[in-house]
Amino acid sequence: MYKAVIIGGSAGSFQVITRLLNSLPPNFPLPVLLSLHRLKHIRSGFVEALSIKSSIPVIEPYDKDQIKAGKAYLAPANYHMFIELGNRIALSTEGPVNHSRPSIDLSFITAAQVYREKLIGIILSGANKDGAFGIKKIKDYGGIVIVQDPAECQVKTMTEAALKLTKADYVMKTDEIIKFLQNLKI
Amino acid sequence: MISRYEIGIVETRNVIKALLDTYDYDFRDYALTSLKRRLEDVITNNGLKDSEVLINRLQDNKVFFEQFLKDITPETTEMFRDPSLWRHLREDLILDVVKNTSKPKVWVAAFDSGEELFSLCILLKEMCLLDQFQIYASIFSDETLKKIQQGRIDVKQLEINEANYDRSNCISKYSEYHHIAPATGSLTLDTKLIKDVTFIKQNTLYNNAPGGIRLALFRNQIIYYNQILQDKTLNSIHNSLVAGGYLILGTKETLENTNANNKFTVINETEKIYKKKTG
């Protein structure tokens, strides 16, 4: 039924992501795409930090890598991460969008175009509006949209911007998102 | 971003066909997602109704086409993108390239907006080696060439460029190399840096490529290609390089997904430096 989960986050999302990755079953049946704001000039360390507690492998993909189920793909520093037809990663050094590279919007939009109604999009805590338009696109293409409950977010600008633009399928706290993903029937 | 035009795959193919038929510029094997996105930018930013209007405008208006070529080229870089690479070039690779060769040829094999070229020239100048190299730079559009020759670089990037410069262990101050016009705030780089550069007009990197190259900077280009174009271009660059010549890719690009993989040895995995095998 679904083909991928894509998650966007910025300030205040690291612990949430860590908990999500930690709680996924090791045989999670979908790829997890992570578009997270990060320091652009620090290339190493982030994927290692996310890997420590993750129950599935976390990879910083190379351009045109094939996307596989049961793995998490983290957008590399200073690149946009697109989803390309043929289920591959495509990277880009085009200018920042919403002051961000990687831009969550661009990852979300391209994923929505490829996976259409078979995509689950999740937006988490963050301090700017990147991702809000992407969430709308996922919804427009018929995908499922989950917004972290702004009341729980360390910084709620991002989730509120998303909710302003789109009627989310679910507004959930971290625990509920975890349960949703654990019980996912694909 | 809300009122952005969204282009379909069939429409994209129609634009590609028009460009090929009218101007012999071949976009058929570009990576679709990013090409679509840049086409959408062109359509949206020019206030065009749809891709059909774009095609008509391209066919009828050479000036618009030249501007289009500039806009469709990803503005790839910042100055000294990936400072650790530039440190490595300064401390190691450049010295190796210049050793035992008089006037080694370096090729900035990238359709970029000039940052990569200027970074290289600044690096070589600081090493007192600028006049010891023959530098080639690929040019896709006349508009971009004009911009580079006037040293015009995006002023919004100044902070990033300065930080990258410092992280690259450069020995002077970044501000030595540019001038900001007090009236307009526009920034120009010192064009003396590029006065001996040979610009090569190319509509693809594999046509009209230079030969005898010791070092090719080919960073963050194949990300915009599909596999066919990746193989074709890498094959051509391989032919351009002398045996033992170096190829540098972007940090998240790899030869592993290409046909060129067995023709090069990995010299530095982190900075994606490859050496052409001999024989």
Please characterize this protein's 3D structure.
The complex is a heterodimer of chains A (186) and B (279). With 186 residues, chain A is of the alpha/beta class. Chain A has one domain: Rossmann fold (3-Layer(aba) Sandwich). Helices cover 31% and strands 21% of the residues of chain A. In chain A, the strands form two sheets. Chain A has a seven-stranded parallel β-sheet with strand order 3-4-2-1-7-8-9, sandwiched between helices. A two-stranded antiparallel sheet of chain A has the order 5-6. The longest helix of chain A has 12 residues. In chain A, 57% of the residues are buried. With 279 residues, chain B is of the alpha/beta class. Chain B has two domains: 64 residues, no CATH class; 194 residues, Rossmann fold (3-Layer(aba) Sandwich), CATH 3.40.50.150. In chain B, the strands form two sheets. Chain B has a seven-stranded mixed β-sheet with strand order 5-2-1-6-7-9-8. A two-stranded antiparallel ribbon of chain B has the order 3-4. In chain B, helix 3 crosses helix 4. The relative contact order of chain B is 0.13. The interface between A and B is medium-sized, with 28 and 33 residues.
